[in-house]
Amino acid sequence: MSIQLKSLPYRYHELEPFVSAETLRIHYEQHHKRYVDNLNSDIENTALDEKGLHEIIRDAEGRVYQNAAQVWNHNFFWQCLTPHGGQYPKGGLLTAIEDEYHSFANFQQLFEHSTARRFGAGWTWLVQLSNGRLQIINTRDADTPATDPNTQPLLVIDVWEHAYYIDYHYRRADYVRQFWYFVNWEFAARNYSQAVS
């Protein structure tokens, strides 16, 4: 069994102006594909070769873990985006955000602040903890909350420089502000409903 490079759920140009077609093509065809290729090469003819991606992340270390986690993180990130985004979440997720952060606008501000504080490469997530509360967290490099059975990822933004440098250079804050217009809140809400069910 090999880990597949999943297809993007949109065409390259459909996330403009959040990211350009050039950025998305390089991000997907070079960075994401390289993680998949490296992972398959490293697990070939090993005990991990018959395991699924989540199992590999849970059981692996070092380079294998890093590549597997990056594949998982990117698979999740692509689903967090949609050309038809830009609206507020609805229903239970919006209520949970407002209960935790007092308003949706305050949540956005704190999320943006967290991305600014993420030194170097990594990811900024909205997750739900096992006690039901929401939390904004940063992970460094390839680390992922998918390894924590007490944490349900709801939403993520990639803040590695390759995700935005061509379009924004060092202006990470501008990249994050554009993110809100392309968030797939339906995907985030499905993750939330799975966590609370």
UniProtKB/TrEMBL annotation:
Task: Determine the domain of life of the protein's source.
Answer: Bacteria
- Top enzyme class, one word, equals oxidoreductase
PANTHER family per UniProt:
SUPEROXIDE DISMUTASE (PTHR42769), SUPEROXIDE DISMUTASE [FE] 2, CHLOROPLASTIC (PTHR42769:SF3)
Its taxonomic path starts at: Bacteria, Pseudomonadati, Pseudomonadota, Gammaproteobacteria, Arenicellales
- UniProt source species: Arenicella chitinivorans
Would you tell me the protein name for this molecule?
Superoxide dismutase
One of its Pfam families is Sod_Fe_N
What molecular function does GO assign, one term? superoxide dismutase activity
UniProt keyword annotations, A-Z: Iron, Metal-binding, Oxidoreductase
EC numbers, comma separated: 1.15.1.1
What Gene3D superfamilies does the record tag this protein with? Fe,Mn superoxide dismutase (SOD) domain (1.10.287.990), Iron/manganese superoxide dismutase, C-terminal domain (3.55.40.20)
Q: Where is the Manganese/iron superoxide dismutase C-terminal domain?
A: 89-190
The Swiss-Prot or TrEMBL record describes its family as follows: Belongs to the iron/manganese superoxide dismutase family.
What function is annotated for this protein? Destroys radicals which are normally produced within the cells and which are toxic to biological systems.
Q: Which reaction does it catalyse?
A: 2 superoxide + 2 H(+) = H2O2 + O2
Segments forming domain Manganese/iron superoxide dismutase N-terminal: 4-81
Positions that bind Mn(2+): H27, H74, D158, H162
